[in-house]
Protein backbone atom coordinates (compact mmCIF):
# COMPACT_ATOMS: atom_id res chain seq x y z
CA UNK A 1 0.00 0.00 0.00
CA UNK A 2 1.40 3.26 -0.94
CA UNK A 3 2.24 5.62 1.83
CA UNK A 4 -0.01 8.69 2.28
CA UNK A 5 3.04 10.66 2.63
CA UNK A 6 3.80 10.07 -1.02
CA UNK A 7 3.11 13.34 -2.76
CA UNK A 8 1.64 11.82 -5.91
CA UNK A 9 -0.74 9.69 -3.95
CA UNK A 10 -1.95 12.73 -2.08
CA UNK A 11 -2.46 14.59 -5.27
CA UNK A 12 -4.43 11.75 -6.81
CA UNK A 13 -6.59 11.49 -3.71
CA UNK A 14 -7.32 15.18 -3.69
CA UNK A 15 -8.13 15.11 -7.40
CA UNK A 16 -10.47 12.20 -6.88
CA UNK A 17 -12.20 13.96 -4.03
CA UNK A 18 -12.58 17.08 -6.17
CA UNK A 19 -14.11 15.02 -8.94
CA UNK A 20 -16.58 13.42 -6.55
CA UNK A 21 -17.40 16.79 -4.99
CA UNK A 22 -17.89 18.34 -8.41
CA UNK A 23 -20.06 15.47 -9.56
CA UNK A 24 -22.18 15.62 -6.44
CA UNK A 25 -22.41 19.39 -6.72
CA UNK A 26 -23.42 19.15 -10.35
CA UNK A 27 -25.96 16.50 -9.52
CA UNK A 28 -27.37 18.62 -6.70
CA UNK A 29 -27.41 21.74 -8.81
CA UNK A 30 -29.13 19.84 -11.61
CA UNK A 31 -31.86 18.65 -9.28
CA UNK A 32 -32.26 22.14 -7.89
CA UNK A 33 -32.35 23.61 -11.38
CA UNK A 34 -34.81 20.99 -12.56
CA UNK A 35 -37.09 21.76 -9.62
CA UNK A 36 -36.76 25.50 -10.26
CA UNK A 37 -37.38 25.09 -13.97
CA UNK A 38 -40.40 22.94 -13.28
CA UNK A 39 -41.64 25.52 -10.81
CA UNK A 40 -41.05 28.34 -13.28
CA UNK A 41 -42.73 26.35 -16.02
CA UNK A 42 -45.80 25.74 -13.89
CA UNK A 43 -45.83 29.38 -12.85
CA UNK A 44 -45.50 30.38 -16.50
CA UNK A 45 -48.40 28.12 -17.47
CA UNK A 46 -50.56 29.61 -14.74
CA UNK A 47 -49.59 33.10 -15.88
CA UNK A 48 -50.29 32.33 -19.54
CA UNK A 49 -53.61 30.75 -18.61
CA UNK A 50 -54.55 33.85 -16.65
CA UNK A 51 -53.38 36.05 -19.52
CA UNK A 52 -55.34 34.00 -22.03
CA UNK A 53 -58.43 34.16 -19.84
CA UNK A 54 -58.06 37.90 -19.50
CA UNK A 55 -57.53 38.24 -23.26
CA UNK A 56 -60.55 36.06 -23.98
CA UNK A 57 -62.68 38.10 -21.63
CA UNK A 58 -61.29 41.29 -23.13
CA UNK A 59 -62.06 39.99 -26.61
CA UNK A 60 -65.63 39.28 -25.55
CA UNK A 61 -65.92 42.78 -24.14
CA UNK A 62 -64.32 44.24 -27.27
CA UNK A 63 -66.74 42.25 -29.43
CA UNK A 64 -69.65 43.64 -27.42
CA UNK A 65 -68.20 47.12 -27.70
CA UNK A 66 -67.69 46.61 -31.44
CA UNK A 67 -71.32 45.54 -31.82
CA UNK A 68 -72.39 48.60 -29.86
CA UNK A 69 -70.21 50.82 -32.05
CA UNK A 70 -71.71 49.28 -35.18
CA UNK A 71 -75.19 49.80 -33.78
CA UNK A 72 -74.35 53.40 -32.92
CA UNK A 73 -72.96 53.92 -36.43
CA UNK A 74 -76.09 52.53 -38.07
CA UNK A 75 -78.31 54.57 -35.78
CA UNK A 76 -76.24 57.69 -36.49
CA UNK A 77 -76.42 56.99 -40.22
CA UNK A 78 -80.19 56.63 -40.04
CA UNK A 79 -80.54 59.81 -37.97
CA UNK A 80 -78.23 61.67 -40.36
CA UNK A 81 -80.35 60.54 -43.31
CA UNK A 82 -83.52 61.68 -41.55
CA UNK A 83 -81.87 64.97 -40.66
CA UNK A 84 -80.92 65.51 -44.31
CA UNK A 85 -84.48 64.79 -45.39
CA UNK A 86 -85.84 67.18 -42.77
CA UNK A 87 -83.27 69.78 -43.81
CA UNK A 88 -84.33 69.41 -47.45
CA UNK A 89 -87.98 69.74 -46.45
CA UNK A 90 -87.13 72.74 -44.30
CA UNK A 91 -85.28 74.40 -47.17
CA UNK A 92 -88.19 73.70 -49.46
CA UNK A 93 -90.64 75.22 -46.98
CA UNK A 94 -88.36 78.22 -46.44
CA UNK A 95 -88.05 78.68 -50.20
CA UNK A 96 -91.82 78.46 -50.60
CA UNK A 97 -92.33 80.99 -47.80
CA UNK A 98 -89.76 83.32 -49.36
CA UNK A 99 -91.52 83.03 -52.74
CA UNK A 100 -94.86 83.81 -51.11
CA UNK A 101 -93.34 86.74 -49.24
CA UNK A 102 -91.82 87.99 -52.50
CA UNK A 103 -95.17 87.70 -54.32
CA UNK A 104 -96.84 89.35 -51.34
CA UNK A 105 -94.38 92.23 -51.48
CA UNK A 106 -94.96 92.57 -55.24
CA UNK A 107 -98.73 92.58 -54.69
CA UNK A 108 -98.38 95.27 -52.02
CA UNK A 109 -96.24 97.31 -54.40
CA UNK A 110 -98.81 96.93 -57.18
CA UNK A 111 -101.64 97.79 -54.80
CA UNK A 112 -99.79 100.89 -53.61
CA UNK A 113 -99.10 101.88 -57.22
CA UNK A 114 -102.76 101.36 -58.12
CA UNK A 115 -103.79 103.44 -55.11
CA UNK A 116 -101.44 106.23 -56.17
CA UNK A 117 -102.62 106.00 -59.78
CA UNK A 118 -106.24 106.03 -58.66
CA UNK A 119 -105.57 109.03 -56.44
CA UNK A 120 -103.88 110.84 -59.35
CA UNK A 121 -106.74 109.90 -61.70
CA UNK A 122 -109.27 111.01 -59.11
CA UNK A 123 -107.45 114.31 -58.72
CA UNK A 124 -107.22 114.66 -62.50
CA UNK A 125 -110.90 113.86 -62.96
CA UNK A 126 -111.85 116.25 -60.20
CA UNK A 127 -109.65 118.90 -61.75
CA UNK A 128 -111.13 118.26 -65.20
CA UNK A 129 -114.66 118.23 -63.84
CA UNK A 130 -113.97 121.48 -62.08
CA UNK A 131 -112.53 122.95 -65.29
CA UNK A 132 -115.54 121.71 -67.27
CA UNK A 133 -117.95 123.11 -64.73
CA UNK A 134 -116.09 126.40 -64.81
CA UNK A 135 -116.36 126.47 -68.60
CA UNK A 136 -120.03 125.54 -68.51
CA UNK A 137 -120.57 128.20 -65.90
CA UNK A 138 -118.91 130.78 -68.12
CA UNK A 139 -120.99 129.63 -71.05
CA UNK A 140 -124.16 129.90 -69.00
CA UNK A 141 -123.17 133.43 -67.98
CA UNK A 142 -122.87 134.28 -71.64
CA UNK A 143 -126.23 132.71 -72.34
CA UNK A 144 -128.21 135.92 -72.01
CA UNK A 145 -125.75 137.84 -74.15
CA UNK A 146 -125.78 135.19 -76.89
CA UNK A 147 -129.54 134.90 -76.76
CA UNK A 148 -130.00 138.63 -77.05
CA UNK A 149 -127.52 139.31 -79.86
CA UNK A 150 -127.43 135.99 -81.72
CA UNK A 151 -130.91 134.67 -80.92
CA UNK A 152 -129.12 131.72 -79.36
CA UNK A 153 -130.44 129.41 -76.65
CA UNK A 154 -128.07 127.12 -74.73
CA UNK A 155 -129.46 123.98 -73.14
CA UNK A 156 -127.60 121.65 -70.81
CA UNK A 157 -128.05 118.02 -71.82
CA UNK A 158 -127.37 114.97 -69.67
CA UNK A 159 -123.78 113.78 -69.86
CA UNK A 160 -122.10 117.20 -69.63
CA UNK A 161 -123.29 118.12 -73.11
CA UNK A 162 -124.58 121.47 -74.38
CA UNK A 163 -127.12 122.02 -77.11
CA UNK A 164 -126.96 125.30 -78.99
CA UNK A 165 -130.24 126.40 -80.57
CA UNK A 166 -130.17 129.22 -83.15
CA UNK A 167 -133.24 131.12 -84.32
CA UNK A 168 -133.79 134.07 -86.67
CA UNK A 169 -131.57 132.40 -89.23
CA UNK A 170 -134.10 132.28 -92.05
CA UNK A 171 -135.94 135.49 -92.92
CA UNK A 172 -138.76 133.41 -94.29
CA UNK A 173 -139.16 131.44 -91.07
CA UNK A 174 -137.55 133.20 -88.07
CA UNK A 175 -138.70 130.48 -85.66
CA UNK A 176 -136.92 127.71 -87.56
CA UNK A 177 -134.28 126.21 -85.24
CA UNK A 178 -130.73 125.31 -86.18
CA UNK A 179 -128.86 123.28 -83.58
CA UNK A 180 -125.60 121.59 -82.81
CA UNK A 181 -124.57 119.47 -79.84
CA UNK A 182 -121.19 120.03 -78.17
CA UNK A 183 -119.25 118.08 -75.56
CA UNK A 184 -116.08 118.77 -73.59
CA UNK A 185 -114.08 115.54 -73.10
CA UNK A 186 -111.72 114.48 -70.27
CA UNK A 187 -108.80 116.23 -71.99
CA UNK A 188 -110.77 119.51 -72.05
CA UNK A 189 -111.12 119.33 -75.83
CA UNK A 190 -114.29 120.46 -77.58
CA UNK A 191 -116.06 117.96 -79.80
CA UNK A 192 -119.15 118.46 -81.99
CA UNK A 193 -121.51 115.52 -81.50
CA UNK A 194 -124.19 116.46 -84.03
CA UNK A 195 -125.39 119.34 -86.17
CA UNK A 196 -128.84 119.97 -87.68
CA UNK A 197 -128.86 120.92 -90.45
CA UNK A 198 -125.39 119.57 -91.30
CA UNK A 199 -122.68 122.12 -92.10
CA UNK A 200 -120.02 121.37 -94.70
CA UNK A 201 -117.39 123.32 -92.78
CA UNK A 202 -118.23 121.97 -89.31
CA UNK A 203 -115.08 119.79 -89.12
CA UNK A 204 -112.93 122.79 -90.07
CA UNK A 205 -114.66 125.03 -87.52
CA UNK A 206 -114.24 122.34 -84.85
CA UNK A 207 -110.48 122.15 -85.47
CA UNK A 208 -110.21 125.95 -85.31
CA UNK A 209 -112.05 125.93 -81.95
CA UNK A 210 -109.70 123.25 -80.59
CA UNK A 211 -106.66 125.21 -81.74
CA UNK A 212 -107.70 128.72 -80.64
CA UNK A 213 -110.19 127.96 -77.83
CA UNK A 214 -112.04 131.08 -79.00
CA UNK A 215 -115.62 130.04 -78.37
CA UNK A 216 -117.26 133.35 -79.20
CA UNK A 217 -115.69 133.38 -82.66
CA UNK A 218 -116.72 129.75 -83.12
CA UNK A 219 -120.39 130.54 -82.37
CA UNK A 220 -120.33 133.53 -84.68
CA UNK A 221 -118.89 131.38 -87.49
CA UNK A 222 -121.49 128.67 -86.91
CA UNK A 223 -124.31 131.25 -87.16
CA UNK A 224 -122.72 132.64 -90.32
CA UNK A 225 -122.66 129.15 -91.87
CA UNK A 226 -126.32 128.56 -90.98
CA UNK A 227 -127.27 131.91 -92.53
CA UNK A 228 -125.26 131.02 -95.63
CA UNK A 229 -127.31 127.85 -96.07
CA UNK A 230 -130.45 129.95 -96.59
CA UNK A 231 -128.87 132.76 -98.58
CA UNK A 232 -127.09 130.34 -100.92
CA UNK A 233 -123.75 132.15 -100.36
CA UNK A 234 -120.57 130.38 -99.31
CA UNK A 235 -118.36 131.85 -96.62
CA UNK A 236 -114.63 131.79 -96.73
From TrEMBL:
Residue span(s) of domain Chromosome segregation protein Spc25 C-terminal: 157-227
Keyword Cell division carried by entry: yes
Record flagged with keyword Cell cycle: yes
Predominant location category: nucleus
UniProt xrefs under InterPro entries: Spc25, Spc25_C
GO BP annotations listed: cell division; chromosome segregation
Keywords: Cell cycle, Cell division, Centromere, Chromosome, Coiled coil, Kinetochore, Mitosis, Nucleus
GO CC annotation terms, alphabetical: Ndc80 complex; nucleus
Subcellular location: Chromosome, Centromere; Nucleus; Chromosome, Centromere, Kinetochore
One Pfam short name: Spindle_Spc25
Subunit structure: Component of the NDC80 complex, which is composed of ndc80, cdca1, spbc24 and spbc25. The NDC80 complex interacts with mis12 and zwint.
Function: Acts as a component of the essential kinetochore-associated NDC80 complex, which is required for chromosome segregation and spindle checkpoint activity. Required for kinetochore integrity and the organization of stable microtubule binding sites in the outer plate of the kinetochore. The NDC80 complex synergistically enhances the affinity of the SKA1 complex for microtubules and may allow the NDC80 complex to track depolymerizing microtubules.
Sequence similarity: Belongs to the SPC25 family.
Name of the molecule in the record: Kinetochore protein SPC25
Organism: Cyprinus carpio
Taxonomic placement: Eukaryota, Metazoa, Chordata, Craniata, Vertebrata
Amino acid sequence: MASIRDYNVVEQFNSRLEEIRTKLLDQAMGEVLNDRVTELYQEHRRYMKAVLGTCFKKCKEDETIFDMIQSYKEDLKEKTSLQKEKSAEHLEVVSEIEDKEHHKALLFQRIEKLKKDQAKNRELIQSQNKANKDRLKKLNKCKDIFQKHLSLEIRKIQGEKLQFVFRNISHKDPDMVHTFLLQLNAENVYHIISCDPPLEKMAHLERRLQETNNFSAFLANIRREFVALHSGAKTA
